[in-house]
TrEMBL record, chain A:
Cofactor: a divalent metal cation
Protein name (database record): N(6)-L-threonylcarbamoyladenine synthase
Domain of life: Eukaryota
Cofactor binding note: Binds 1 divalent metal cation per subunit.
TrEMBL record, chain B:
Enzyme class of the recorded protein, top EC level: transferase
E.C. numbers: 2.7.11.1
One GO MF term: protein serine/threonine kinase activity
Family per record: Belongs to the protein kinase superfamily. BUD32 family.
GO cellular component, one term: chromosome, telomeric region
Subunit comment: Component of the EKC/KEOPS complex composed of at least BUD32, CGI121, GON7, KAE1 and PCC1; the whole complex dimerizes.
GO biological process, one term: positive regulation of transcription by RNA polymerase II
Domain spans labelled Protein kinase: 16-265
Subcellular localization, as worded in the UniProt entry: Chromosome, Telomere; Cytoplasm; Nucleus
Protein name as it appears in the record: EKC/KEOPS complex subunit BUD32
Automatic annotation (TrEMBL), chain C:
Signal peptide: none
Annotated stretches, region: Disordered: 19-65
Assembly mode: Component of the EKC/KEOPS complex composed of at least BUD32, CGI121, GON7, KAE1 and PCC1; the whole complex dimerizes.
One GO-annotated biological process of the protein: telomere maintenance via recombination
Keywords assigned: Activator, Chromosome, Coiled coil, Nucleus, Telomere, Transcription, Transcription regulation, tRNA processing
Location of the protein in the cell: Chromosome, Telomere; Nucleus
Job of this protein: Component of the EKC/KEOPS complex that is required for the formation of a threonylcarbamoyl group on adenosine at position 37 (t(6)A37) in tRNAs that read codons beginning with adenine. The complex is probably involved in the transfer of the threonylcarbamoyl moiety of threonylcarbamoyl-AMP (TC-AMP) to the N6 group of A37. GON7 likely plays a supporting role to the catalytic subunit KAE1 in the complex. The EKC/KEOPS complex also promotes both telomere uncapping and telomere elongation. The complex is required for efficient recruitment of transcriptional coactivators.
Protein name: EKC/KEOPS complex subunit GON7
Species in which this protein is naturally found: Huiozyma naganishii (strain ATCC MYA-139 / BCRC 22969 / CBS 8797 / KCTC 17520 / NBRC 10181 / NCYC 3082 / Yp74L-3) (Yeast)
GO cellular component labels: chromatin; chromosome, telomeric region; EKC/KEOPS complex; nucleus
Amino acid sequence: MVDLNTVSPKDPAKRYYLALGLEGSANKLGVGIIKHPFLPETGAAAKDNSHDCHVEILANIRDTYVTPPGEGFLPRDTARHHRNWCVRLIKRALLEAGVRDACAELDVICFTRGPGMGAPLHSVALVARTCSLMWQVPLVGVNHCVGHIEMGREITKAKNPVVLYVSGGNTQVIAYSDHRYRIFGETLDVAVGNCLDRFARTLKIPNAPSPGYNIEQLASQCKNKETLVELPYTVKGMDLSMSGILAYIDSLAKDLFRGNKANKVLFDKKTGNTKVTVEDLCYSLQENLFAMLVEITERAMAHVNADQVLIVGGVGSNARLQEMMALMCHDRARGRVHATDERFCIDNGVMIAQAGLLQYRMGNYVKDLSETVVTQKFRTDEVYVSWRN
Amino acid sequence: MSEEITGQVRTYVTDNIPITLISQGAEAVVYTTPIHPYLPIDDSTKGEKYIIKYRPHKRYRHPSIDQALTKHRTVGEARLLSKLSQIEGLQVPKLIACDVYNGCLWLEFLGQDLPQGAGFSNLKNFLWMHAANDPYSNVVRETLLKVGHQIGLLHWNNYTHGDLTSSNIVLVRSQIVDGWEPHLIDFGLGSVSSMVEDKGVDLYVLERAIMSTHSEFADKYNAWIIEGFSNVYKLQGKAGQKKLDELLKRFAEVRMRGRKRTMIG
Amino acid sequence: MDRPYAVYESPDIPSKKFTVVPGNPRYETTDGVTTRPSDHVLNAGQIDRDKPSEPKREADGSEQFTKLSQLRMNLTGLQDDINEFLTEQMDVAKAKKAKLDSLEQDARIEEEINGLLDGKDDD
């Protein structure tokens, strides 16, 4: 029995909660404003409604720090981007949501406490603290990964799914049990999004709108889908490793770029003609990495006896990954896959507001500003999930 | 459970071999059959059951990855099982027949039903059954020490399992004493390896699996497994102790790495 | 108007105060030295769209900067001071660590040689 009404809304007459969410753990700066209606079930009658809060999204604005092709984003420059745009984005979001008096109307301000890059996290947390003091609104520090999960659950209404969380910095298979999101499998080295980003950099594939998106487009244009470029397949139990694959495909990409004819995988031994194109490499890399992801997800499903999968995180918007996952779910248990589109998959402020508001409604918010110090390392299973049964 | 997979298997084994599904793992489906592939049906084989482990074609992955994996894993598992069965004290299912291109293994059947309708006798169900009344009872302790012993034997002989979970350990009622004999099954990701890293990861994977499915009692359960594991190495004298120290050190490192790895969202 | 200041404390440094020096151009701009985009991305062709806005002057034609803009400029200068100081501290810490590491390395190599002499078999 979870009572999501333990804290009453700021203005009890309004019968709803309003939350502002601020996200800036990587190169996306997101501001979101959401509304939760006050649920009729209170006290003993309350059910676990955390995946069905009837959320209303009043504003969801994002600005991405984009670097030139071949370059990654550095913490310092990313933080600078966030510092410069954060106030403007908040102003726009408040206007869009029709919030005239933040001080009187907002119930809570939620911000990403980690995991992520230190400097960008820090610059956004500073804005959150300032707004909180200025408007006298309580703060909630949110785990970024939990934000993704809660948003995905609310949008898709998936009941207790196995969660595949795939982004630039994370690759985890998660299942909920006993008030924690437990990590069943994860990458032992680099994250899948990072692997794609770095491969894109070697090939100077543009970073806008995102390197992963461009790889997906190139892969879909591959003309020779029957033959794959053979890559290492490195599933280790429920975990996986991607550094070896990255190193190998990166060396292929470099040879292709430089026209190194000595490479037999890429060039015909006799004629010296190219056998493999950039599109082929993108296609093979996706097929290989995603097969591994689907496999470890299936392992977790078998282990906890689940029939649904929820994909969250930036890489989760990839149509091929969703398609493969859907095939697996169907064949496995006539189950289904839940995914969201780029508005919610890619880092955003709304997801931070969603997870933060749930936490706030359970009475768990910042009592002292010292609790708002951001942390680069913050595991998904560290969070006590009080809002679920 | 998908009908298509069972359809595939029925076409493959033909109607002469009746099959009953017992589990659909992530990678393979497992059936029981009363038929032995080459022994005649007589009094000695009557009432016996055998396992057919079939790796179905996975539609989600590219055909060339699928074929390569199926063959590679079936060959690997068959080869591994035949070698493991020669190690004294190590308990794994016996290999009866295999067809690597079709991803099929014929194996000895292990395990039985647990009392009180607690399901099949794998370690997961066994621990869940005991969690209800006495999670730290003597039989649980004894069993987990033996589980550790089995893994210890495996590692000491330079093999790794690759996917140690509480569902991949099957318990068989002991013929000699009142208790259970753990058997390791599903060597689909197993390998020959003398690397401390692989062994450390093996232990870490099991520790995490125990933590995820038996979270409340995981600390003690894991400690018992490691105790049983360590005893195998300690019996090997000074060299064993040295290897054990090295392994446990790496195990701790893998655990730290797993937990502290920087995660950028 | 009170000017902003900052104080740094650590086990090594009991207290270091950063203050605005009136009249110094460092504290009269919103474009800090240490808060510009890194040369690395600029060289790669980055277009800087994240530049802080120019300070604003009072609307009464007095040429005075607004209170908020004055604060922004003062903070930009202070931020530069702090960043430069912290970078120095990092260099000091790095040099210390490098010295320690090289000592550790020597010890490890020695141990390995001894180990091999004793017939140690590496995994």
